[in-house]
């Protein structure tokens, strides 16, 4: 208890202080006209969506990476966690690619390396101006302008380009996407169905956000950077697709995103030749902390399977966005599953904060 108190104190003491925070004349909105002030909610909305996007994508990448490591430990379930912690190098790391490295792409890259604990050599970025990413190159990230190379070698691809560039990018990479690759799109104007047509794959994820006049009355601090936001557990909880603070959110994420992430995980398990029993076991470890209260079951995914291999079929994610599955019904109504999902989600960022505070505390000793 004493150590935890000291860690929390160290975390508070090292939080940067904005000396201009209470000076009204130095605030962003001090020089705005009355008409412009009415549009400030758009700035808050954009910031909230960016924070949510980075948090959710980092969580998803972390889950897939952890699952790939757990696959190697199926024969000894009791030693899975300990064995993974002992391995200095991941045995089968998740290969991630980011196409487009503007504001969102660069912030996402930083979040993956910081909170997702991703090895820089497992991250590729393709952008029209790779020379501007020297800070990422210095970390060991492969920064190029080669969409085809990135698409053909990545398990998970984040699409962070402008809507006007989607058609060109799709023409480049559609013939080079491995069947098992997952495309995670942040392009707001392209639906999953349209992306399937352009990319030739149904393994597409696209988070959907919503807001209302009522939600935009909620407080949201858009003056802090993404990193600071993700080190605040209250903000992180508001970004979780399955959370208990929906009424406090500035922008809300549809719970459908959690469902699609689960099905994408199952697709990856099938690609890795993991049988249904083991796939569900790993799913509950990496997404639900192996909560004993309740589990998703095979019948939540399929009713009758003719597959003789013992594996789940490959699900078309773009079709699932248009229907309500038993999986969504379960995670929407089962409180133990919801609580476990949220705990795992929050833990990803809280673990980093705890480690950071611990290192600072030791450095001061």
From TrEMBL:
Top-level taxon: Eukaryota
GO biological process, one term: L-proline biosynthetic process
GO MF annotation, one: pyrroline-5-carboxylate reductase activity
Pfam families assigned: F420_oxidored
Pyrroline-5-carboxylate reductase catalytic N-terminal domain segment(s): 95-183
Keywords, in A-Z order: Oxidoreductase
Keyword Oxidoreductase: yes
Protein purpose: Probable oxidoreductase.
Family named by the database record: Belongs to the pyrroline-5-carboxylate reductase family.
Stated name of the protein: NADP-dependent oxidoreductase domain-containing protein 1
Species: Mizuhopecten yessoensis
